[in-house]
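Example for tutorial group B:
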């Protein structure tokens, strides 16, 4: 079976313009190009497009998708199983969030006050949902679904006291980063060491085993991914880089 670019567009819902762009960047090449210049796609290309769309649904960047699919060791069945696990985890997360929102709406309609325990669960669910939506694809690609799912579960299992400490640590790290950058301190300074220690505590408060290499890898994402950078630099530029450099220096 062979499809023209128009036919593949109708079949997949991907515009012909996008398919031409995928061809241009080497992500999805047609099986052949006729003398007329028309592109044609075979079964292998259809399968590859399906893989691309699965990765895109999980928020993976095009360059990373190409890297995965072009890897000689790429295992399509294993990738599909990974996609399924990620989607099922996302469905479970959304179902929990929907239940929480419905409970809140119901309580508001009945003029009832939600218990502190219910509110606390909603806060944790929102935190997990936000992190999954904003950074889930990259973290899953780097560390695997099992690791991320366990981290999310650890957040959901936090006690109220642990959750308050966790969020408080996040704010303290942000405040100290801004003060350090404004003061022109070095990440190798004593303050850089303290910030690294706070960040280590923030990472491990959920019970995760500390891994210095992983700590440095996570910090590296803060300058590699503009969304992480924007989070730490939201009020003052240079905070994300200071944190990365401090962790590289002090994470032992």
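The residue assignment follows.
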């Amino acid at each position: 079976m062979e499809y023209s670019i128009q036919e593949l567009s109708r079949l997949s819902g991907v515009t012909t313009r996008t398919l031409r762009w995928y061809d241009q960047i080497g992500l999805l090449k047609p099986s052949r190009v006729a003398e007329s210049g028309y592109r044609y796609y075979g079964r292998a290309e259809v399968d590859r497009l399906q893989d691309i769309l699965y990765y895109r649904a999980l928020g993976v960047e095009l360059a990373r998708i190409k890297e995965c699919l072009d890897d000689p060791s790429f295992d399509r069945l294993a990738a599909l199983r990974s996609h399924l696990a990620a989607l099922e985890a996302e469905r479970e997360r959304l179902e929990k969030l929907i239940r929480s929102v419905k409970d809140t709406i119901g309580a508001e309609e009945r003029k009832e006050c939600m218990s502190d325990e219910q509110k606390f669960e909603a806060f944790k669910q929102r935190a997990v949902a936000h992190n999954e939506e904003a950074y889930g694809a990259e973290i899953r690609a780097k560390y695997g679904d099992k690791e991320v799912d366990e981290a999310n579960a650890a957040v959901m299992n936090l006690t109220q006291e642990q959750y308050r400490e966790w969020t408080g640590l996040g704010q303290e790290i942000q405040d100290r980063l801004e003060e350090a950058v404004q003061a022109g301190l070095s990440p190798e300074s004593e303050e850089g060491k303290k910030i690294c220690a706070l960040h280590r505590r923030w990472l491990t408060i959920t019970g995760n085993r500390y891994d210095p290499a992983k700590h440095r890898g996570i910090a590296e994402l803060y300058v590699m991914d503009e969304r992480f950078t924007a989070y730490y630099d939201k009020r003052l530029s240079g905070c994300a880089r200071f944190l990365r450099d401090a962790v590289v220096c002090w994470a032992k």
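The two ends are 56 Å apart (CA to CA). Compare this with the pattern of hydrophobic and polar residues in the output above.
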